[in-house]
Amino acid sequence: MEGPWRQWRRVSPNNERPFRYIRQDFFLARTFRDLDDLNAQFDGWRATVANPRVHATTRRVVNEAFAEERPSLTALPAIPYSAVLTIERGVGATRV
Questions:
Q1: Rounded to an integer, what distance in angstroms lies between the CA atom of residue 55 and that of residue 70?
Q2: How far is it, in rounded angstroms, from Cα 3 to Cα 82?
Q3: Overall pTM surpassing 0.90 (yes/no)
Q4: What φ, ψ does residue 63 adopt, rounded to 5°?
Q5: Per-residue b or e along 20-56, where b marks 16 or more CB atoms closer than 10 Å to that residue's CB
Q6: 51 within 8 A of 63, measured Cβ to Cβ
Q7: Distance CA 32, CA 17 (A)
Q8: What is the percentage of the chain residues whose pLDDT exceeds 90?
Q9: Segment among 14-18, 20-24, 35-39, 72-76 with least mean pLDDT
Q10: What residue segments make up the domains of the chain, in order of their start?
Q11: What angle do CA 1, 10, 26 make, to 5 degrees?
Q12: How far apart are CA 14 and CA 17, in angstroms?
């Protein structure tokens, strides 16, 4: 019997492709003055490059697929989820 971690390893590369696409096609060879500049450049890239393209796997235009799926999507919670994990560590003298 195959454990769940093996199943995850098998499908994980497919789950990581959107991040690779953004990293290789958006971030490479760009510079940003600040977070607002990054967001503005990303919005422009998404509107003119990423979403109008034909998706390599589904062979559908990304904007059209999203428009079709939009009625089925649910709104995000009104209160943002805090995804930051804080762990405090103490540092002391090392004894020999």
A1: 17
A2: 30
A3: no
A4: -60, -40
A5: eeeeeebeeeeeeeeeeeeeebbeebeeeebeeeeee
A6: yes
A7: 23
A8: 45
A9: 14-18
A10: 35-71
A11: 165
A12: 5
DSSP string, the chain: ---HHHHHHHHHHHHHHHHHHHIIIIITT---SSHHHHHHHHHHHIIIIITTSBPTTT-SBHHHHHHHHGGG--PPPSSPP-----------PPP-
Q: Which amino acid is at 42?
A: F
Mean pLDDT of the chain, nearest integer:
81
Residue 8: what residue type?
W
Tokens for 69, please give them.
């799926």
The set of residues, in sequence order, having a beta carbon less than 8 Å from that of 41 and lying 6+ positions away, is 26, 30, 32
Single-letter amino acid code for the residue at 13: P
